[in-house]
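Final report, Chapter 2: Outcomes

The project's central promise was a pipeline that accepts a single protein chain and returns its three-dimensional structure in a standardized token representation, suitable for archiving and comparison. That pipeline is now operational. To close this chapter, we reproduce one record exactly as it appears in the project archive, with the input sequence first and the structure output second.
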Amino acid sequence: MRVLRRLGVLVLLAGWALGTGVPELINYQGILKDGAGDPITGAVTLTFRFYDADTAGNLLLTVQQPNVSVNQGLYNVLIGSGVVSGPENTLSELFRDNADLWMSVEVGTDGEMAPRHRIASVPYALHGGEWSDEGTYIHANNAQNVVVTDDAKVGIGTTSPAEALTFDGGILQQGSAAYGAWSHTHVNLGRQSDTGEPGEDHRNCTVSGGSHNTASSSGASIGGGVGNVAGQYGTVNGGFENTASDFYPTVGGGQWNEATGHLATVGGGELNSAVALRSTVGGGGNNLAYEDHSTVSGGYDNLAAGFGSTVAGGIQNAAGLFVVPGDSYATVSGGYANTASGLYATVPGGEGNLAEGYCSFAAGCNMQLSHDADGTFVWGYSDTAITPIDTPDAFIIYSGDVGIGTTTPNAKLDVNGDANVSGEATMTSASITTFAKLTPMATPPASPSEGTVYMDSMTHKLMVYDGTSWQACW
């Protein structure tokens, strides 16, 4: 008969109560197959032998289990429920007296199978300690008291447990503990960490791990890390020396970050601060979200100083400076040393750009719009900051040529195709390579200046104003 056995399931069946011992039983499961490799069904006798070596060695205990039921090759047996013979008298003595054990299995009289199997640590629970009739458990190794009272309260390190489960000395090092009732619940699983004194009115105050962390108020939570501090309903997930104070702030990680505004958030990074209502710093380094609803997504040394202002990234950018609190919504998308300080002002990137006007837009390099340039768009390049533009409601291309219908403009405005102008067009220097068409008019333009031209629809003549009156060209 061929036997394949599974020793991965070798489980102590241990139940306990006051005044009772641990059952002398080990649950063992296996698979039996015949010589052809087919699972068998029926009843067999199994003999288990315990040795102090994997080969040869001394036979310490024999357990014979008759009439073991096998179904489709599978069997389950409680070792110890059969006939036990020495030299050891019981399974408890076997595990108590021997640090290393190996077990063999024999089916019927087929002979002991090889190799022997080493016994895992679980059965050693058979010799864990003893219970007295007085309700005190004495640990076998260090005689540490575990008390179970008549009213079903368990005390570890204390002989007078006040709650269903009471620890004296903490779960981990340095007084870490779980204690309190509903009105002052503290859970501290950290090392040299603090959740306040027992009895303080802290609800759901938690330190899940780490070292030197402090959850100092109700609802405060620290996931781990080192030297973190969480205030009322504040959360620090980890990292090093981060602070989440005020109501409902969050620091995701990183180091030396602080979320000190109501509902403020710092995702991570280093030396970032979100100090106002619902302010957010996503990450990066040395960024500050200073006003309510302001955001710095990342980058380095950026400042969102106005209400609802945003700096998406980059270095040394600022949004919302010099704006009355509550009136900003300025945006800097990135780049270096850009400032959007006007209401709804925007700088998309680049370097050294300034947008101070209402709804103003400055792009490129060193473009400057003053606070008078409301609604003005400027795009261009300069090696140094230009003189701030004061003109409102203007669209300005500061440097280079503009091509319409061409990729190689040869003038400030180069149009390849038809141009339709409604209103007055003033040209101090213009070149028309094909022709110009004037729409005939029944009345001359109002308030003309010298050189104004129009086509008279009545006389079909080209009329020119000479500074005094209109003159026909022919």
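Archive annotation: Residues 1-21, 129-143, 172-176 have pLDDT under 50 and may be disordered.
This record, like all others produced under the grant, will remain available to the consortium after the project formally closes.
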